[in-house]
Amino acid sequence: MKIAAVQMVSTPEVDRNLAAAGRLVAQAADAGARLVALPEYFCLMGQRDDDKLAIAEADGDGPIQAFLSEAARRHQIWLIGGTLPIRAATPDRVRNACCVYGPGGERVARYDKIHLFAFDNGRERYDEGRVLEAGSEPVAFDAAGFRVGLSVCYDLRFPELYRALMRPACDLLVVPAAFTYTTGKAHWELLLRARAVENQCHVLASAQGGLHENTRRTWGHSMVIDPWGEVLAVQAEGEGLAIADAAIERRKAVREQLPALAHRKL
C-alpha cells in the first residue's frame, strides 16, 4: 500500500490551513497514496496556546471534522487527520485528538495524545499541560489489511506506548507531529528509526516543517521508514509530501529473518 505523510507550515487561520491541507491531500491521492497522514496541529498553529480553545469542536461535530470526513470520502483514502482540538470535560482544556476517516468518510478511530510536551532550555519554553488534557488509551485500527497504531509527537519518546500497540502487532505506526526545530534536529530521525527497528514495522511521520507566522520554527523532515530502519522518503522543510510503498512483504521478511518480537520476555 502506498502511504503519504503531508508536511505543512500551518498558520493562525483555520480556513487557510484547511485549504492547504486539502490541496496536499489531493496531491497525495493523485500520486496513488491510499493512506495519508496530516501533521499535528494541521488546522491551527495559533499565536497563543489557548487559541485552541476558541476553535475546539464537540466530538463528532464541527467544520474541521467535516473537512476530514469529506476529504477521505472524495479521494477514497484512509485519512489520518493529524490532530485537532476536541472539547474536554472542563472548559479550559481540550484533547489533542487524532481522528481517522475511512474511504467512505466514516470515522474509524480517535486517539487522544497521552504524553504532553514540556520543554525549557532558557530560550524556548513549552508546556502543553496548560491547555491540553491528556488521553489515556492506546488506539489502533485496521485499514485495507494493515493494522495501524496511532501516536502523536511527544509520544515518540515513550517506547512503552509502541510496545502496547504491538499486542497484537501493528504493520504501521503513525506519528503526526510538530517537533520544535531544537528537539527535532537532535532526536526526530533517531527516535523514528528506533521505533521502526524495535517494532519491525513501517513508520509514517507527518510533521510541521518551517517558520510559522507565530514565530515558532518546527523541524519538519516528514518521513516514511521501513521495518529495517531505512528511510524510504523524506520532506526536509516546507510544504510537501513524503510518499512511499509500505510493502507487507518487507515487514514479513524482516520479522522472519530476525524474530525479535517473538523473543520478547516482558
Automatic annotation (TrEMBL):
The CN hydrolase domain is annotated at: 1-248
Extract the coiled-coil ranges from the record: none
Q: Entry's CDD domains?
A: nit (cd07572)
Question: Per its UniProt record, what InterPro entries does this chain match?
Answer: C-N_Hydrolase (IPR003010), C-N_Hydrolase_sf (IPR036526), Nit1/2_C-N_Hydrolase (IPR045254)
GO molecular function terms attached to this record: hydrolase activity
Q: Which Gene3D superfamilies match?
A: Carbon-nitrogen hydrolase
Pfam families recorded for this chain?
Answer: CN_hydrolase (PF00795)
Domain of life of the organism encoding this protein: Bacteria
- Give UniProt keywords alphabetically: Hydrolase
Q: What is this protein called?
A: Carbon-nitrogen hydrolase family protein
Q: Which organism is it from?
A: Ideonella lacteola
